[in-house]
Amino acid sequence: MSKTEALPLYERKHLTKIIPRLIELTILFLCFSLLGYRLLHLKNHGFIWLVALLCESWFTFIWIVVVNIKWNPIAIKTYPERLLQRNLELPPLDMFVTTADPVLEPPIITVNTVISLLSVDYPANKLACYLSDDAASPLTYFCLVEASEFAKLWIPFCKKYNVPVRAPFRYFSDQSLFTGNSSSEFQEDWNIMKDEYRRLCQKIEEAAQKSVPCELTGDFAAFVDIDRRSHPTIIKVISENKEGLPDGLPPIVYISREKRPNHAHHFKAGAMNVLARVSGVMTNAPFMLNVDCDMFANNPQVVLHAMCLLLGVKDETDCGFVQFPQQFYDGLKDDPFGNQMVVMIKYLGRGLAGHQGPLYGGTGCFHRRKVIYGSSPEDKSGHGKMNTGDLEKAFGKSTKFNKFVAQALSSSSRTAECPESISKSIDEACQVASCGYEYGTAWGKEVNEPAILIPISIFVVFNTYCVSEYIQTNQSIKSWWNNHRMARIIAMTAWLCGFLSAIFKILRLSVTVFEVTKKEQSSSTDESEEKLGRFTFDNSPVFVPGTTILMVNLTALGIGFLDFMQGNGGKIEWGIGELVCSIWVVLCFWSFLKGLLGKGKYGIPSSTVCKSAALAFVFVQICRSSWGI
């Protein structure tokens, strides 16, 4: 064995530090002390302390989970250069991109995602890209065809000059990525590519402004009178790379699965199932990558890094998937919406790596195909020995697909039996993409006393420790505050509504609706960062709980102020603790306070204000009657 082959493809480095562990244990000790104090004095304070005990018990439980996750952090270092030095044939990879609405998810965003994947540092004859379009939009298909033409020029340019970021919109908008080469040849090629990308954007913008992007004839005939909620399967092979060129254009396949009103389509999960089956009869790569349409590959060697982990383990059952964290470009300063997850990814992500690895994040994940098909680490015999009846019962009645399923389950990770031609597999692919294919199969089955020092200590130590984590990751204190307040807001808005939605679904009072969020694209309009960081409101019920909480605490502060002005003659005993807690909640929901005073999209609608005011009034009256105030 050569020295290069003996070197590992990745290394795990333990990052255990004593001081963080001591701080975490101190916080945990204080939490248990507080719970003990509450229990000892519960008889003397009644219902209010019981509620506080329940809340603090939940916080303690969460902190136990957090400490457990962060106890053994691990950093993973991969060595793609060692993988390339080995005389091994790299395994094929099927790449999935999902989109559902060309209005909420502009095609130019999807196109950049696809182009960034097509141009990664990996042999083109080992890649295949599948785009799932749940809107059955001729605009999306048109843009994908145009993007494939641009990719024929973009891929050689990226490989020739080792372009660091392969998403064109990002590369041409960041001047720091352009300054690495000053040769006249590069300057000329760079200008040519920028002009080509500008023309691509112009074509897409012009097509988006029309009711239909082009005449619906030829390849576009399938989109005539299309109804996005009820239509047959549409599968188009845009590029095939029949010559198997390692530096050519990888195969590109457009998929819009069949939809019918009386068949549940299971939203993105259903789309992923169809992508797995269609790719299974077309290219059948042993590994799959799924990416949301607004997540581009910001590292051209991302596939090589993933393969270091998937191929570097001694036993493939030790690594079922590789999850890459999401990173955000051009994030607003100090993270006003608390959604950049820098600290969480660094500390909780490394902590999870010390256990069995991170959770599946829904995007940016490399999967072993056999794991998606149901292979488990405990099953050493392999599913490949399943008979025809068992395969049909689990995977459906497609003979060709089941043949490749059996092969994928029984073979090694680096081999895959592929169909002779992608184009010749369209009929079979349409069959496995039909809306009724999953029925009867395994697809789609459904995861002022001394004791006052205890809560004060928890509050101070916990938040100080959190601030230190942000400082260590080069984040500002304001960024910590924004993430802290957003955690409070999300818990009392989105999470609460999600919890209630799940309860209503269990009680069969409602059905779950998958709502596509609007994806923002780059704009030339000069909008100040202050406005970009402001909340926008609408009539959604998700804003009612947050507005109600704000009103309750404002009312509490108002009652406390009046009580103070009366010389403490009221019936409420106020202290610093109550005052600080109410002020803290108001500060956390400051964006809602600005919404009460705002106008237009930055103001809370009057209907939401009325609902929240009514709920706050009822809550206050119940409290006053309960305590005889």
From TrEMBL:
<dbReference type="InterPro" id="IPR029044">
    <property type="entry name" value="Nucleotide-diphossugar_trans"/>
</dbReference>
<keyword id="KW-0812">Transmembrane</keyword>
<keyword id="KW-0472">Membrane</keyword>
<dbReference type="GO" id="GO:0012505">
    <property type="term" value="C:endomembrane system"/>
</dbReference>
<feature type="binding site">
    <location>
        <position position="292"/>
    </location>
    <ligand>
        <name>Mn(2+)</name>
    </ligand>
</feature>
<keyword id="KW-0328">Glycosyltransferase</keyword>
<feature type="binding site">
    <location>
        <position position="268"/>
    </location>
    <ligand>
        <name>Mn(2+)</name>
    </ligand>
</feature>
<dbReference type="GO" id="GO:0016760">
    <property type="term" value="F:cellulose synthase (UDP-forming) activity"/>
</dbReference>
<keyword id="KW-1133">Transmembrane helix</keyword>
<dbReference type="InterPro" id="IPR005150">
    <property type="entry name" value="Cellulose_synth"/>
</dbReference>
<dbReference type="GO" id="GO:0071555">
    <property type="term" value="P:cell wall organization"/>
</dbReference>
<feature type="binding site">
    <location>
        <position position="134"/>
    </location>
    <ligand>
        <name>UDP-alpha-D-glucose</name>
    </ligand>
</feature>
<protein>
    <submittedName>
        <fullName>Cellulose synthase-like protein H1 isoform X2</fullName>
    </submittedName>
</protein>
<feature type="transmembrane region" description="Helical">
    <location>
        <begin position="46"/>
        <end position="67"/>
    </location>
</feature>
<dbReference type="GO" id="GO:0016020">
    <property type="term" value="C:membrane"/>
</dbReference>
<dbReference type="GO" id="GO:0030244">
    <property type="term" value="P:cellulose biosynthetic process"/>
</dbReference>
<keyword id="KW-0808">Transferase</keyword>
<feature type="transmembrane region" description="Helical">
    <location>
        <begin position="542"/>
        <end position="562"/>
    </location>
</feature>
<feature type="transmembrane region" description="Helical">
    <location>
        <begin position="486"/>
        <end position="507"/>
    </location>
</feature>
<feature type="transmembrane region" description="Helical">
    <location>
        <begin position="21"/>
        <end position="40"/>
    </location>
</feature>
<dbReference type="Pfam" id="PF03552">
    <property type="entry name" value="Cellulose_synt"/>
</dbReference>
<keyword id="KW-0961">Cell wall biogenesis/degradation</keyword>
<feature type="binding site">
    <location>
        <position position="105"/>
    </location>
    <ligand>
        <name>UDP-alpha-D-glucose</name>
    </ligand>
</feature>
<feature type="transmembrane region" description="Helical">
    <location>
        <begin position="574"/>
        <end position="593"/>
    </location>
</feature>
